[in-house]
Every structure is written in C-alpha cells, then in structure tokens.
Amino acid sequence: MSSTASPIQPATCTTMTEVRAGVDAVDAQLIELLAVRFGYMDAAARIKTERAAVRDEARKQQVLANVQAAADKAGVPVEVVADLWERLVEASIAYEFDKWDASRA
Questions:
Q1: Alpha-carbon span 67 to 61, nearest angstrom
Q2: C-alpha dist (Å) from residue 3 to 14, 22, 76, 101
Q3: In a 10 Å sphere around its CB, with 0-12 CB exposed, 13-18 middle and 19+ buried, how is residue 41 labelled?
Q4: Which residues of the chain are modeled with pLDDT < 70?
Q5: How many domains does the chain have?
Q6: I want to staple 6 with a disulfide (CB 3.0 to 4.6 A). Which of 22, 42, 67, 73 is the partner?
C-alpha cells in the first residue's frame, strides 16, 4: 500500500480544487485499503475448510459494532458508517463464497 496523502488538510483548503484533490487522494487510499481487505477474504476462503463457515453472523455483528464505535469516536456519522459496512461485509461474504467455491471446483 502506498502512502498517498491528501495534498492539503481539509481545514486548510481554500478552494474547491484543493477539496477535490484531497477527496481524490483519500478515495485512492480507500481503494488500496479495500484491496488489502479483499486479500484477507482470499485468505479466509483458502483457510476455511467448510463452506458453511464463510458466513459467520457473530463475526459480522462484531465487525459492525467495532466500526460503529470507531466512527463514533472519530466523530463520523455512525449511521452512514453502519450502512457502508453492512454493504461491505455482505459484499465481502459474497466474494468469499465465490472464492471458496472456485478453489474447490
């Protein structure tokens, strides 16, 4: 993962060009982090010996609770984060099922 940083901090932006450059830089960082996260889904699909283990509702709830607490602490809208992570976790589970199935076909 690269260490791409926002060209300028949000509080010091004075133009929309600076804001947009910062948003674009953060989006690039998020994509890099998502690639790492999905790499962990690849690893999970490789490690889990039973297909039924791919969906782990207790773990899903733990992940959602963790990110909601982190969002609250960071001052980020908890409801927005909860919705994003619900979608991310479900997409991750679907991805892991696909990888699990493909590796055992």
A1: 10
A2: 24, 14, 22, 34
A3: buried
A4: 1-6
A5: 1
A6: 22
